[in-house]
Design goal:
This protein has 332 residues and is an alpha/beta fold. Helices cover 20% and strands 19% of the residues. The protein has a five-stranded parallel sheet, covered by helices on one side.
Length: 332
């Protein structure tokens, strides 16, 4: 629905369609230092964008304003202790595995997989992605009681289980998922829940994973679901001087604006235009990437960020981006 009703109509609108360059990767963003001199401040110098197209050809372009909305979905947090990679968690690990072996950092459709009898699955993470995978495994176990699971969660457990339950949650399915996953963790005989335990090392040998845990235990499992979250890719921004939060990794002004806000993502709101400013004039980070490793981002907040950002770009505090759009270019 998001693609059909919003993204595709927007991409095909007259204002946007001529501007889109598909299959193009941004490799680096920097200031065009050839135009910096004693009389030209850095903030008045255009950005230099290094790009690679679908044929692998590189080129450079310039821009006065850069909006980084690249998100976090392509860069997963490592599996290991303390947020760093586990021993053996190399970049090519996932690509080197047999086709029948699952090592997934998202939420695969397990109903379409064919787990062998007596398959042993490791789930790592204490968020709703991990809970979703646990409930998928419960459905598979109901059909094949030989399936076994180990669930690792960081930190101290809640009284009710690994998932925090929001009382009178305005999202009833979220509350239902949290309670169901907690019930499985505490009572299912086919699942071994290990709170406060992390992965120290991972080795794939003899068609199995040998996992070394932080408590010294070794596990042999067939499949791994690593739901440790995601973070933004900042390598392409190394040449810029962007002040980032030491905690979340997001831009400092935005991180400070949400530091004391509710832990419930539904209560997140944009803190206004000033919260979107970075230490590079004309450069903005919006969307999930602005949250860094903080998982509370919602699309509704991102849409408000867009409104606030264009107040800065247009230098109009009263600008209502959607109210001032022409009817033939509006979407949704």
């Amino acid at each position: 629905e998001w693609a059909d009703k919003y993204l595709e109509p927007l991409a095909n609108s007259d204002l946007v369609r001529p501007c889109i360059q598909t299959h193009t990767r941004v490799d680096a963003v920097a200031r065009d230092t050839s135009q910096i001199d004693d009389e030209t401040p850095r903030s008045d110098t255009p950005f230099r964008i290094l790009l690679t197209d679908a044929e692998g050809q590189q080129r450079a372009d310039t821009a006065d304003i850069v909006i980084d909305a690249t998100g976090t979905w392509e860069k997963a947090n490592p599996l290991g202790r303390g947020g760093a990679a586990a021993i053996g968690e190399t970049p090519d690990l996932e690509n080197s595995l047999p086709d029948e072996t699952i090592f997934d950092r998202r939420i695969p459709d397990l109903s379409k997989t064919k787990l062998k009898e007596r398959s042993r699955v490791l789930v790592v993470g204490r968020g709703f992605s991990a809970a979703t995978n646990i409930m998928q495994l419960k459905e598979l176990h109901d059909r094949d009681p030989s399936i076994r699971c180990v669930w690792l969660t960081r930190g101290k457990p809640n009284d009710s289980g690994p998932m925090r339950v929001i009382v009178n949650d305005p999202l009833p399915y979220r509350e239902e998922l949290a309670r169901a996953a907690n019930t499985v963790a505490r009572h299912a005989d086919w699942l071994d829940w290990k709170p406060g335990v992390e992965v120290s090392a991972i080795h794939f040998e003899n068609d199995h994973f040998r996992m070394v845990l932080s408590d010294g235990e070794e596990l042999i499992v067939d499949h791994v679901l690593a739901n440790t979250g995601f973070r933004g890719d900042y390598e392409m921004l190394d040449a810029l001087k962007v002040h980032r939060c030491y905690g979340s990794g997001g831009p400092m002004a935005w991180a400070a604006s949400i530091a004391d806000s509710s832990a419930d993502c539904l209560e997140q709101t944009s803190a206004g235009p000033d919260a979107l400013r970075t230490t590079e004039s004309g450069f903005f980070i919006i969307g999930s990437k602005s949250y860094g490793t903080d998982p509370r981002f919602l699309f509704s907040t991102g849409l408000q960020q867009i409104r606030d950002m264009f107040k800065i770009i247009a230098q109009r505090d009263s600008l209502n981006l959607y109210a001032t759009m022409q009817p033939n270019t509006s979407v949704g």
